[in-house]
Write a structure and sequence with these properties.
The chain is α+β, with helices and mostly antiparallel strands. The protein contains two helices and eleven strands. 20% of the residues are buried.
Amino acid sequence: MTTWQANYAYHVGDILIDPQGNTQQCTSAGTSGAALPPFSAVVGNSIVDNTVVWQCVGVVMTPFTLADVTSHDWSLALDESVNSSAPGSGLGQVVQSLDDITQCLRIIVTTPKGTDPLRPDFAVDIFDYIDRPINQFLPRFVRTVTDAIAKYEPRVVLLNVTVQPTQDQTFGRLNGVLTWRPKVNVTPSSAITTFITLPRLN
């Protein structure tokens, strides 16, 4: 990551750190102005910098090093696995222990089958039945999620799978609700419930 430069050609996806320590991402390419623009500190807000558009994607995090990894179970964080799901918010972050398992469960449930070229059978292809009536969708969802997690996430014991409307009651959106516990002795040892917003047909 770099700091802002005047009269500089930026491209979509370029990321910089503003003077307040926030991460800004270029969402529309162009050339920056002669003076420092008024960067927003609100995640998701955009500002115009001459012909460049910057979007705030959160406070920059101190990248993890191997010395920060304290669990055998860890992986790079996805944006959806950190406090802000804005683009780039997971950069330099890792998830460990139960957070790593939770992220893996989200990946299994939300990845369309066939999109991982090295593992064509990976994940759950809910698009085959997501638009069916709930009494047809639910048993298929439970079966395919249970089978996929048993195959691709051996660290958990899956206790229950169901669905419920999302908290904001958005029409047509469902949360997959997974109740599980880790097979190893970690804290907490009780059942854990993970809510996963399911993709939908547009």
